[in-house]
């Protein structure tokens, strides 16, 4: 088993990994840059090291991180999500230095971390993919003729994109001409690669993804699916496991497809295969070769500790479970509480958290790195807390979500919490019928009052005073 793990990440996921290490008797080493000096992952890890003043550079420096792992006597690195997690060079550097990379082999990251390479592998493995490019686009002319072939609307996507960025829908040749250079420049800026490809746009699909686990002994299992259709601008807001809108046949079909996809590329460790569903059709979209933000809800319905399994697999152990051991129970929802102002086009709202009171009670889990007095730095992702609820049935899970969002107090910054309560109240959401078009179709859900609902006592008192004074 591993003895000491360096965590090449920050925020809630770094804390999540520290927790897994602590439970497994593994020492953890945190890294941080100066704006994160007072961050929770720094306090919670067994050791922590500063990687300089620049907010980002340290987290993105493969050589420095691997060297630090060697110097501090670590035997492995956990990359978390984002940052270097899908960087094949980083994984290669670990391999070269005898540091175990907690993830798949670098050659598999090359194959699946790159969206067009992944499409090629899936085509070979007979996994259905969205109609579109063979490889990257050479130029606008190729994009235009391919779009004619597959039919509008189409999507132009950054090959090494992630986090919902570098994706544009084009409804006509004119739009394609406009968007093509924009995606290239966005891809270059955000991902350091100008490569883009084209796919048919599936109009208002459901986003269904399957969590898989694969060990180094050839065993691959899936932990059922998550429904991440509640998105804004291709970014997930609320995630649900299992999907309330799959038939048992569809569930088995996507589960098997994901296992087949993983087997086809010799996948090892935890990964997610993302699909788009429309009617009865299923298309492979991409594979994320890392732990995902929403792994929490799968943990809640299956009881499997995914980060622990990642560490065990990396240490060369066999999976703790066979497919038939995996059962799911109830429904789990995750709310990504972002430091953003929904009423102001979701503008980031960084600053000091003047007061934080965690929600709790039955079926509630919080993964976060914030605390009262913590100042959210403006350099990183705006997600500041993941609120996860679980209940035996769908309606109870929604009601628990409402209650837990009500429970939570997070003052000093604007967040998406109240907006999520509006979504939970919507009859389409409650009935379990929604797709990726839900958020754009319901702008009215943004018209809520920022004031907290007055309590029943306060309302009765106000009415009594009004009656008494003759208002
Ligand atoms: P998930 O796929 O786990 O649902 P997201 O797509 O929301 O996660 O991304 C999680 C974090 O990782 C975000 O901060 C996002 O910007 C970052 N990220 C994801 N993919 C990439 C990538 N290819 N390059 C850089 N950052 C990425
Ligand atoms: P990222 O790496 O940023 O997660 P994805 O390829 O997973 O990018 O796409 C993110 C989201 O964009 C999807 O969940 C979906 O809502 C939307 N999307 C991507 N490709 C398509 C498509 N071909 N048709 C319709 N929607 C798409
Ligand atoms: Mg994705």
From TrEMBL:
Annotated InterPro entries: ACC_Biotin_Carboxylase (IPR051602), Acetyl_CoA_COase_biotin_COase (IPR004549), ATP-grasp (IPR011761), BC-like_N (IPR005481), Biotin_carboxylation_dom (IPR011764), Biotin_COase_C (IPR005482), CPAse_ATP-bd (IPR005479), PreATP-grasp_dom_sf (IPR016185)
Domain of life: Bacteria
GO biological process: malonyl-CoA biosynthetic process
MF-aspect GO terms: ATP binding; biotin carboxylase activity; metal ion binding
Catalysed reactions listed for this entry: N(6)-biotinyl-L-lysyl-[protein] + hydrogencarbonate + ATP = N(6)-carboxybiotinyl-L-lysyl-[protein] + ADP + phosphate + H(+)
Descriptive protein name: Biotin carboxylase
Pfam families, per the entry: Biotin_carb_C (PF02785), Biotin_carb_N (PF00289), CPSase_L_D2 (PF02786)
UniProt KW keywords: ATP-binding, Biotin, Ligase, Magnesium, Nucleotide-binding
Lineage: Bacteria, Pseudomonadati, Pseudomonadota, Gammaproteobacteria, Thiotrichales
PROSITE patterns named among the record's database cross-references: ATP_GRASP, BC, CPSASE_1, CPSASE_2
Subunit note: Acetyl-CoA carboxylase is a heterohexamer of biotin carboxyl carrier protein, biotin carboxylase and the two subunits of carboxyl transferase in a 2:2 complex.
């Amino acid at each position: 088993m591993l003895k000491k793990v360096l965590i090449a990440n920050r925020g809630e996921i770094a804390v999540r990994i520290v927790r897994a290490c602590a439970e497994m008797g593994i020492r953890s080493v945190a890294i941080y840059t100066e704006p994160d000096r007072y961050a929770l992952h720094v306090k919670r890890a067994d050791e922590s090291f500063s990687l300089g003043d620049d907010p980002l550079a340290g987290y993105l420096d493969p050589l420095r991180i691997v060297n630090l792992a060697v110097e501090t006597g670590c035997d492995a690195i956990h990359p978390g999500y984002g940052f270097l997690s899908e960087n094949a060079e980083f994984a290669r550097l670990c391999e070269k230095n005898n540091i175990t990379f907690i993830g798949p082999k670098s050659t598999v990251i090359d194959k699946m971390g790159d969206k067009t390479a992944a499409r090629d592998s899936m085509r070979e493995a007979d996994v259905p993919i969205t109609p579109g490019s063979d490889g990257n686009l050479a130029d606008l002319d190729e994009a235009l003729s391919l779009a004619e072939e597959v039919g509008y609307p189409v999507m132009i996507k950054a090959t090494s994109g992630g986090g919902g960025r570098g994706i544009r829908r084009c409804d006509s040749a004119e739009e394609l001409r406009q968007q093509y250079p924009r995606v290239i420049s966005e891809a270059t800026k955000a991902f350091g690669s100008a490569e883009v490809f084209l796919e048919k746009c599936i109009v208002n699909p459901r986003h269904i993804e399957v969590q898989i686990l694969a060990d180094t002994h050839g065993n691959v299992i899936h932990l059922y699916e998550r429904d991440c259709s509640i998105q804004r601008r291709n970014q997930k807001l609320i995630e649900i496991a299992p999907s309330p809108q799959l038939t048992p046949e569809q569930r088995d079909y996507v589960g098997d497809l994901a296992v087949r996809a993983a087997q086809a590329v010799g996948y090892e460790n935890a990964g997610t295969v993302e699909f788009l569903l429309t009617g009865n059709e299923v298309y492979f979209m991409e594979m994320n070769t890392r732990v995902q933000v929403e792994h929490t809800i799968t943990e809640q319905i299956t009881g499997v500790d995914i980060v622990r399994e990642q560490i065990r697999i990396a240490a060369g152990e066999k999976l703790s479970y066979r497919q038939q051991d995996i059962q799911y129970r109830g429904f789990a929802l995750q709310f990504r509480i972002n430091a953003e102002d929904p009423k102001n086009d979701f503008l980031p709202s960084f600053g000091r958290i003047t007061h934080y009171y965690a929600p709790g009670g039955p079926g509630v889990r919080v993964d976060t790195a914030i605390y009262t007095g913590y100042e959210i730095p403006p350099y990183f992702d705006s997600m500041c807390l993941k609120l996860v609820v679980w209940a035996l049935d769908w309606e109870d899970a929604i009601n628990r979500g409402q209650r837990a969002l009500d429970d939570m107090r997070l003052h000093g910054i604007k967040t998406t919490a109240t907006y999520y309560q509006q979504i939970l109240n919507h009859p389409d959401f409650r009935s379990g019928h929604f797709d990726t078009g839900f958020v754009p179709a319901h702008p009215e859900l943004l018209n809520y009052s920022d004031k907290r609902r007055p309590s029943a006592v306060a309302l009765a008192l106000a009415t009594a005073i009004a009656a008494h004074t003759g208002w």
